[in-house]
Design a protein that fits this description.
Largest sheet: 5 strands, parallel
Helix content: 40-55%
Number of strands: 5
Radius of gyration: 13 Å
Number of domains: 1
Number of helices: 5
Distance between the termini: 17 Å
CATH class: Alpha Beta
CATH superfamily: Response regulator
CATH architecture: 3-Layer(aba) Sandwich
Strand order of the largest sheet: 2-1-3-4-5
Mean pLDDT: 93
Strand content: 15-25%
Structural class: alpha/beta
Order of helices and strands: EHEHEHEHEH
Low-confidence stretches: none
CATH topology: Rossmann fold
């Protein structure tokens, strides 16, 4: 069985590095992108089980990235992380198929890791069905 691969997307390099470091114990390959456009290029070149993306980024934001991912690879689970939560963006993310919507300040690395683990479990169940 091949190792699952996840993609982290955030326009702040320090946050990406910190998040990637906190997820090393999950036993997955981790790639990082600092923009939605860079993320889409990686998605076109690789197969990702889970994408964790910031909601607010210059250019294309997390909701637009979620929509593009679901058009390209509907089976990819997407987790939205934001420092600026609001009910409207949370509802839109869920409608578009996001696995989770987490608040950056409140979401400890353990919560993000737990959400990723849940997304990976969801995929395993779907593949068996």
């Amino acid at each position: 069985m091949t190792q699952s691969r996840i993609l982290l997307v955030d326009d702040h390099r320090e946050f990406l590095d910190s998040l990637a470091g906190s997820l090393e114990g999950l036993g997955v390959e981790i790639d990082c992108a600092q923009s939605a456009r860079a993320a889409l290029q990686l998605i076109d070149e690789n197969e990702y089980a889970v994408v964790v993306t910031d909601l607010c980024m210059p250019g294309m934001g997390g909701i637009e990235l979620l929509r593009a991912i679901k058009e390209r690879t509907p089976e990819t689970e997407v987790i939205i992380l934001t420092g600026y939560p609001d009910v409207e963006s949370a509802m839109q993310a869920v409608r578009l198929g996001a696995h989770d919507y987490l608040v950056k300040g409140a979401a400890a690395p353990e919560e993000v890791a737990s959400s990723i683990a849940g997304a990976l479990d969801k995929q395993r169940v779907r593949r068996r069905a």
